[in-house]
């Protein structure tokens, strides 16, 4: 029999994964072409051609030891290249010791939290937030403390100040944000930084940047490390290069971060004992020649535009995303969020309630889907809206 602890945890299923599973059942019931699934954040673009070329040449390589164990932090040459890339991008000093290769952003977040938290330490989490953060914090022995947002889904700085206690050790920010698609501008980062620096203890900003290459409308991603003291970047190629199944990313920070030498030892330690050991060798070799490839977010932007049009023409309120491939859609006034999700499901449209992301009145729509799914959804939503108009809830 599994432990009581595990029993308690497995019941906290992920709303996104549950909806994904429900989608499979619905496809059997309604037929695959009648189900419009906007639940999962799985990029539907293909990885860049250069990645495939490097993968093929690696497979043909006669070099020995390409697949052997390595240092828990990853290959030094690759880390050196990433340190140079991030140091230029963020306008801060950085060397290879400040870069740890990880099994994607999820592993990066976990090793960082384990390295920073003592039991009972608090981590500020800005609403709306990626659903897994509270779980990761809890598993590292910490406590997630949620910070409210304003009507534009940017953090409420007064609430941020009010939520800080002597136990606050870190703050997780995610820009461009899953689920809102909001990009935090430099001024906002400066304001958050000022709040953190006004405290007696060091509070580490943990910046989850997995969507930073998917930004639209000419916006640029600010050099976060130069705006936020003691910040750590969590990056992965899951979303930008469409490689989520391959589990490759890194953690990095400025050489000026507090306790830098111990931090890199701690990250290596937790890579080891949490069982990741090291990031995949093959992907580290492949990415060594392919850091910072230009990523074209235009396909996602086009879909964002189309989806905003569809929702507006139905009289629904959607907050146009500035990046990512998600958009938040407000529930119609007469229904609860759960009723809206269920009604959409009845018509084959799968949206995820944003409750798990900290927002009561919204659903998250992931538009990493083909255009035909979007057009099918547009037709199905006409039926949904007609049913809402005719029904007493
Ligand atoms: C905000 C955010 N952070 C982290 C992750 C996990 O990324 P990875 O696949 O690189 O572990 C996701 C995945 O959806 C995400 O949306």
Please name the defining characteristics of this protein.
binds pyridoxal-5'-phosphate; 2 domains; 14% strand; 4-stranded antiparallel sheet; 14 helices; Aspartate Aminotransferase, domain 1; 393 residues; alpha/beta; 7-stranded mixed sheet
Describe this structure in words.
The chain has helices at 4-10, 15-30, 49-60, 76-90, 104-116, 133-139, 157-163, 186-197, 224-227, 260-273, 281-288, 298-313, 337-346, 371-390; strands spanning 36-37, 99-102, 122-126, 143-147, 168-174, 204-208, 232-236, 249-253, 318-319, 326-330, 349-350, 352-353, 362-366. With 393 residues, it is α/β, with parallel strands linked by helices. It has two domains: 4-47 and 297-390, Alpha-Beta Complex (Aspartate Aminotransferase, domain 1), CATH 3.90.1150.10; 65-288, 3-Layer(aba) Sandwich (Aspartate Aminotransferase, domain 2). A seven-stranded mixed sheet has the order 2-8-7-6-5-3-4, with helices on both faces. A four-stranded antiparallel sheet has the order 9-10-13-12. α3 packs across α11 and α5 crosses α10. The model has no long low-confidence stretch (mean pLDDT 96). Pyridoxal-5'-phosphate binds next to α5. The site of pyridoxal-5'-phosphate has 13 residues, from α5.
Could you tell me how far the N terminus lies from the C terminus, measured between alpha carbons in angstroms? 43 Å
CATH superfamily of the largest domain: Type I PLP-dependent aspartate aminotransferase-like (Major domain)
Judged by helices, strands and strand pairing, the structural class is: alpha/beta
Named once each, the bound ligands are:
pyridoxal-5'-phosphate
How many structural units, i.e. domains? Answer: 2
């Amino acid at each position: 029999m599994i432990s009581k602890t595990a029993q308690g945890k497995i019941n906290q299923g992920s709303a996104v994964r549950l909806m994904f599973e429900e989608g499979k059942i619905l496809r059997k019931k309604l037929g695959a072409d009648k189900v419009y699934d906007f639940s999962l954040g799985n990029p539907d673009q293909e990885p860049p051609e250069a990645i495939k070329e490097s993968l093929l040449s690696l497979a043909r390589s006669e070099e020995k030891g390409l697949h052997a164990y390595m240092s828990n932090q990853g290959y030094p040459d690759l880390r050196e290249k990433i340190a140079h890339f991030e140091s230029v991008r963020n306008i801060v000093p950085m060397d290879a010791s400040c870069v740890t290769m990880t099994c994607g952003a999820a592993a990066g977040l976990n090793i960082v939290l384990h390295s920073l938290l003592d039991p009972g330490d608090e981590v500020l989490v800005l609403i709306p937030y990626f659903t897994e953060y509270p779980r990761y914090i809890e598993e590292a022995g910490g406590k997630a403390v949620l910070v409210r947002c304003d009507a534009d889904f940017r953090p409420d700085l007064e609430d941020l100040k009010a939520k800080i206690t002597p136990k606050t050790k870190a703050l997780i920010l995610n820009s461009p944000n899953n689920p809102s698609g909001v990009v935090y501008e430099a001024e906002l980062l400066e304001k958050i930084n000022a709040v953190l620096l006004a405290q007696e203890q060091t509070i580490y900003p943990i910046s989850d940047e997995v969507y930073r290459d998917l930004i639209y409308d000419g916006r640029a991603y600010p050099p976060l490390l130069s705006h936020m003291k003691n910040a750590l970047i969590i990056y992965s190629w899951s979303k930008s290069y469409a490689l989520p199944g391959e589990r490759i990313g890194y953690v990095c920070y400025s050489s000026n971060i507090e306790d830098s030498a111990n931090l890199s030892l701690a990250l290596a330690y937790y890579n080891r004992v949490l069982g990741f050991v090291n990031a995949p060798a093959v992907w580290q070799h492949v990415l060594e020649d392919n850091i910072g490839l230009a990523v074209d977010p235009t396909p996602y932007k086009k879909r964002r535009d189309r989806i905003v049009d569809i929702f507006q023409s139905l009289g629904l309120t959607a907050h146009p995303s500035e990046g990512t491939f998600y958009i938040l859609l407000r529930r119609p006034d007469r229904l609860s969020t759960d009723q809206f999700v269920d009604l959409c499901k009845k018509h084959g449209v799968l949206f995820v309630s944003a409750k798990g992301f900290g927002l009561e009145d919204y659903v998250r729509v992931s538009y990493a889907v083909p255009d035909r799914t979007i057009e099918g959804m547009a037709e199905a939503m006409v039926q949904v809206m007609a049913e809402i108009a005719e029904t007493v809830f």
